[in-house]
């Protein structure tokens, strides 16, 4: 078989775009579940060690989620990647500040609620959805 007979390699590699977008959707649902669990844990005064673990898992999950989204945007040549990254960065900064406050003994219930209102009601619904629509329309 000649080289020119081979299928060109997808730039999405072994992880096709449709799978990436489906994973992004699933991760959004997981992030919102994590918010519910965290608010319940804080409201019901779970041990601080338990809440600290939940917050650190959330931070790690958020990091992987942002990396998946941004790498998918790069692969799609998304023209609004820069502004999207800024929103991720702002969320990350606030999440890090929240963790520092919690680790210092502070009450972060309202911070968690506000952070997720912004994530759920602004970022996921508007910015992430705009990207998903873009990716589905051009690829
Ligand atoms: Fe997202
Ligand atoms: Fe995003």
Task: Show the helix and strand layout.
Elements: H1 17-43, H2 48-75, H3 81-103, H4 109-138
Describe what this molecule looks like in 3D:
- With 139 residues, this protein is mainly alpha-helical.
- It has a single domain (16-138), classed as Four Helix Bundle (Hemerythrin (Met), subunit A) (Up-down Bundle), CATH 1.20.120.
- Helices cover 78% and strands 0% of the residues.
- The protein has helices at 17-43, 48-75, 81-103, 109-138.
- The site of one fe (ii) ion has 5 residues, from α2 and α4.
CATH class: Mainly Alpha
If helices are DSSP runs of H or I spanning 4 or more residues, what is the number of helices?
Answer: 4
Summarize the helix and strand pattern as letters.
Answer: HHHH
Total domain units: 1
The count of β-strands is: 0
Attached small molecules? fe (ii) ion
Indicate the overall shape.
elongated
Structural class: mainly alpha
Helix fraction by DSSP (H/I, runs of at least 4): over 70%
Instruction: Name the poorly predicted regions.
Output: none
């Amino acid at each position: 078989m000649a080289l020119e007979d081979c299928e060109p390699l997808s730039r999405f590699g072994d992880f096709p775009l449709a799978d990436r977008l489906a994973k992004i959707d699933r991760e959004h649902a997981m992030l919102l579940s994590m918010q519910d669990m965290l608010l319940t844990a804080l409201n019901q005064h779970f041990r601080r060690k338990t809440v600290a673990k939940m917050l650190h898992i959330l931070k790690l999950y958020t990091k992987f989620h942002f990396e998946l989204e941004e790498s998918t945007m790069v692969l799609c040549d998304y023209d609004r990647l820069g502004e999207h990254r800024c929103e991720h960065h702002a969320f990350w900064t606030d999440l890090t500040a929240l963790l520092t406050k919690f680790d210092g003994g502070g009450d972060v219930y309202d911070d968690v609620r506000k952070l997720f209102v912004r994530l759920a009601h602004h970022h996921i619904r508007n910015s992430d959805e705009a990207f998903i629509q873009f990716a589905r329309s051009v690829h």
